[in-house]
Batch of 2 targets.
Target 1
Amino acid sequence: MADDAKKKEVLEQLRNGVIQYDEDACKEGATEAIEAGLDANEAIFDGLVSGMEEVGRLFEAQEYFVPEILMCADALYAGLDILKPHCKQMDLGVKGSVVIGTVEGDVHDIGKNLVKMMFDVAGFNVYDLGRDVPLDRFVDEQLKTDSELVCLSAMMTTSMVGMPKVIEKIKEKNPNCMVMIGGAPTSRDLADKWGADGYAEDASNALKEAIKMVAFLKKLRDEKAEKK
Amino acid sequence: MNAEPLKQYLTREGATLVGIGDVTEALSGEILHLNRGIAIAVNRSLNRETVKILSRLQELADEWLRLKGYRSLIIPPDSDRRKDRLITRLYKLFCHKTAATCSGLGWVGKNGLVINRLYGSKLSWATVLTNAPFEPDEPVRESECGDCDLCVTHCPSGAIRGEHWSVTEPKKKIVAYEKCSALKEERQGLKDKPNCGFCVTVCPYSRKSNGQGKMEY
C-alpha cells in the first residue's frame, strides 16, 4: 500500500490535471497511482472526479466556459483510460448499465457526452447510441441490453417532441426502467408530464446532476466500506 | 490592444502571415466570448512539417495570451484533429477561412480556398480564438478573383462552379465538394487527402508566389 504522502501527491496531481486540462499530467498521475499501488477507484473518485467537481464550480462561477469544460473532460478521460482496467467492480447493489443518446434530428451532444463521462467514471456499462438517433433505437437498445437507465437528450424543440413517445414505449415494456431527459428545451414540468424520472437543463446542469449521482454512489461505497 | 508584439513574435518563430480578425458574427453560443480570431498561415508543401510548425505556433500564441491573463482556444489545422477527443467537436463550429478573411489575409476564391494576394492558395492555416481585445485588422469582404476562370476550366471533376464569394453570402455553395471527392476516390481510391490540387497550382496568385519565400517540395 502506498504511503499517505505519496497518495496525497498523486491524487492532487490527478485533480489538478483535470482542472488545468492537462492530459499529460493526468496520464502521468494515473500511471504513478498504479505503480504506487493506489486503489484505482480511489484515484478516480478522489483525484479525477474531485477535479471535475471543481471544474463544475468554475463553470458556474463563469470562470470556465464550454471549451474549458471539454478540455477538462478530455484530460479526465486520459487518466480514466489508464485507471479503468485496474478498477475493481464496485459493489453497490446496482447492476449499472445505461443507454444514452441524442434524439433524432439533433447533433448537439455536449451535455450528453458530459453525462456519459460521469457514467463511465461510475463504472456503468454505457451504450452510447451517439447523435441523431432514431427514436425506436432507444426502445430496442433498452430491451436488448436490459439497462435500468435510459438518457435522452435534445437541443431543439423540434427534436424534443419525440421524447414522450419513447418514454411511453420504454415504460410500457419495462416499467422499472428509469428515464432521464436533458437539453435546453426540456423542463422539470415536461419531465413530470411525460413521466421521466430525471431531468437536466443544459450541459452544466447535466454535469452537476451527474456529479451528484456519482457522489451519491461514492457515499454508498464508503458506507459499505465502513460497515466491513 | 495592439497586436503587433504577438504578430512579430509569431513571425519570428516561423509564421508566414499573422492577422487578427473580429470574428464575432461567425461564432456560436459556446464560444461567443472568444471574438478575436488570430489567423496564422504557413507557406506549405502539404507535409508533416507544415502541420508541426503550425501546431507549435498555435501553442506559442496560446501561451503568450495566457501569460497575459486572456482566454484562448486553439483550432488546429484541419489535418491535425484527433477524433477521439471531446474538444474536437467544437472545432467544427469554426472555420479557418473565417479567421483568414476577417483578418484581411485573403478572400475565398472560386476554388473554395483562401487566396492571399502574395501567396495565392499555397498557405496552410490555423486559428487561435481569444478574448484578448485586440484591434482587428481590416477584413476582406469580397472576392478578388475577377474574370479569371482558370480553376473552373481546369478542375478535372467539374466541381468548381465559378461563383464569387462574398462575406454577405456565407452559405453560397462555391464548390461541389462531392464531385471533387468522388473523382478522387475513383482515380486514386482515396477518401482523404491529398487532393489533386490543380485548382491551387493553376491559380495566378499561387503561381506568382513561386519565386517568393522558401517553397519546400
Note: Residues 6 and 41 of chain B are 14 Å apart (CA to CA).
Target 2
Amino acid sequence: MNLQVLESQFWSLCLQGVALGFIYVLISLGYTMVYGVLRLINFANSEVFMIGTFATVVAQVGILQNQTDSQSLHGFRLIYTLAFALVFSMVVCGILGILVELVAYRRLRALGAKPLGFLISAIATSIVLLETTRIVTFSRPQTSPRLLDKWSFGEVAGANFRIDTVMVIISGVIIFFVLDRFVTKTRLGKAIRAVSMSEENSKLMGINLNRVVSLTFFIGGLTTGAAAFFYTTVYETTQFNVGFNLGLAAFTTAVLGGIGNLRGAFYGGMFLGVLEQFASAILGSQWKSVTVFTVLVLVLLLKPNGIFGEAVQQTRT
Amino acid sequence: MKLRNYWNLRDAGAQLWEGSNRKGRVTIALSAIVLVALLPFAGASFLATPIAAYDAVLVYPVGVFVLMALGLNIVVGKSGMLDLGYVAFFAIGAYTMALMGTLTSLNTWQIMPFGIAFAMVAGVLLGLPTLRLRGDYLAIVTLGFGEIVRLIALNSSWTKGPNGIANIPMPPDIGPLEFKLDDQKVFFWVVVVMILLTIWMIRRLSIRRPGRAWEAIRQDEDVAELLGVHTLKYKIWSFSLGAAVGGAAGVLYASKNLFIAPEMFTLNVSILILACVVFGGIGNIWGVVVGATILGYLPDRIRFISDARLLVFGIVLVVVMNFRPDGLLPRKKREKIGERAQARL
C-alpha cells in the first residue's frame, strides 16, 4: 500500500487514467456495438485488438520503411506516417471483424444455435488468431519505433500534458463523437438501431440483416483498430498476448456502462481508466488486472445493467 | 438392427449394451477395463509417441485430460453453463498437494480429500455470487477467476511466486505397485480408477434428481425455475462437483510431476479441456472420453501438431461448432430414453 501517491500524483494519475480510459472506450465499442445487435459477446474482439497493434507496427516499419531504432519524424512526414498507420490498423481490424463474424457467427446464426455454441466458436476463433500470431512472431515482443517525439505541452497541477496523452484524448473524443452521430443520425445507423430493437421486425421492414451485422462488426473493428494504434503509440511495444488484459478491461468498461449502451461505455471507460491507474499506483501494478476483474464481478452482481444503466432505454444502439 | 447403426458408433454401442443381460454387461465392462489397463504395455506398437515417453503421455495429457474433461462436462454438458476458469480448480488441487506435501508429512492419498474439499469450497464461493449471471457473463467471470487464481499463485510469497514449488512427494506404494518416475504405469492405473469413479458418479447422478434438474436447467432455465427446480442450488452442485474432479486431477498431477509453477495453469488449459468436451460431444460421457483421448494423444503422436497444439485445437473447435455442433458422439436424444421408460411401465 502506498497512499502517498494519492497526494503527490493525484492529477497526474487522473490524466493518465483518462487517456487509458479512451483506449478502453474504443475497444469496448467493439463489444458493445456487437452486443447491441446480436445480444452476444464478441469474444474475439481482444484478439482483433492484438492484431491491430501488430498492424500498426507493420504499417510503420514494414510498409513505410521506418527502422525500429530510427529517429523521430517531423512535420508532414510525421503526420502522414501516423495517419497512415491509424487508417491501416483501423481497416485491418475492421475487415478482421467481418471475417470473425463470417467464421464464428454466420453459420451458427443460420442454424439457430444456442448461446453456448456462439460462445465456444467465438472463443475458438480468438484462440486461432492468438496462436497464429504467437507462432508467426515466435512469442517475441515487438517494439514499435518512436516516430513521435514525446514533448510536453507543460504541467498543470503535476499532470504532465504529453503530446501522446493529448493526442489519444482528442482523437478519442472525435472518434466517439463521429460514431455517436453515425448511429443516431444516418440511415445505416438507424438500421443498426432497428436490428438491435427487434431482429424479426427489422427483417420485415426490409433491412438486410446479414449486411447490418457485418457492418456492426466492421465498425467495432474500426474503433478497436484505432485503439490498437493509440496503444502502440503510447506504450511502443506489443506482444501476442497483449489482448487478454486489455480485452478484459474493455469488456468491463462495456459492462460498467451497461453493455449495448454506446454513451454508457464512454463513462465506464473514464471510470475504469482512472480507477486502474490509482489501483496500480497504490497496490502495485501486478494487481491491476485483479482490480479490473473485481470491479467487473461487483458490477455484474450489484448492477448488472451497468452503473449508467438508467439511460439504457433511450440510448441503446 | 438397422444398417445405418453400423455407421453410428454411439447407437451401435448403446444397442449392444441395451441388448445384453446383466452377465453380458459385466463381461463387456470388465473386458473394456482390462483392455484399457493393458494400454501402457502397448508402447512398442504403432501407438508409440515420438516426442515424450509413451507411458507418461498416457498419464498426462491423456488420462488427466479425460478426467478433467469429465469434470468439466458436468458443468458445460450436463447443466449448460460455460466455465472458462476450470483450470483454477486444477490449480487449487495441485497447490494443495504441493503445499501440504512439502510442509506436512501427509501423503498423496491423505491430501487428496483436502484438495477435493478446497476445490469444492472454491467452486461454491465462486458459484454463489456468479451463478445468477447469464451464460456469457458467467463465461467471462469464470475466465477472470481462473486468471486471478494464477495471478495469486504468481504474486504471493507463500506459493513461492513464479519459481513454483519443487520436491513434491510421490504417492506411497500401494502394496506391490511402486510409483516410479521412469515407469508411470501405476500412475496410469490410478488415473483409470479415478476416471471410472467419476463416470460412476456422473451416471448415478444423471438418472436421479440432480441429473434431471441439470437437464431441465440446460434446456431452459426459466422454465425449470417455474416448474419448481431450485436452479441456483443445482447449479452450485454441478459447479462444485466439477470443481471436485478438477481438484482431484490437480492433486494427482502435482504428485506425478513433482514440481508445479503458475505458468502451468494458464487459460490455455481451460480451453484445451473445453475443446476435449466439445469435440467429443457435449454432455455424452463416452463422447467426452473419446474426444479427450484423441485430443490429448494426437499432439504427442504427430510431431508437427505438438508445437501448434492450441492452434489445432482452436481450428478443431471452430470446425466442430460450425459443421457438427453436437460433437463426434452426440448425446442421445432424451425422447428415446423417455419412450423406453414408458414401454417398461
Note: Residues 4-144+151-314 of chain A form a domain with the ABC transporter involved in vitamin B12 uptake, BtuC fold (CATH 1.10.3470).
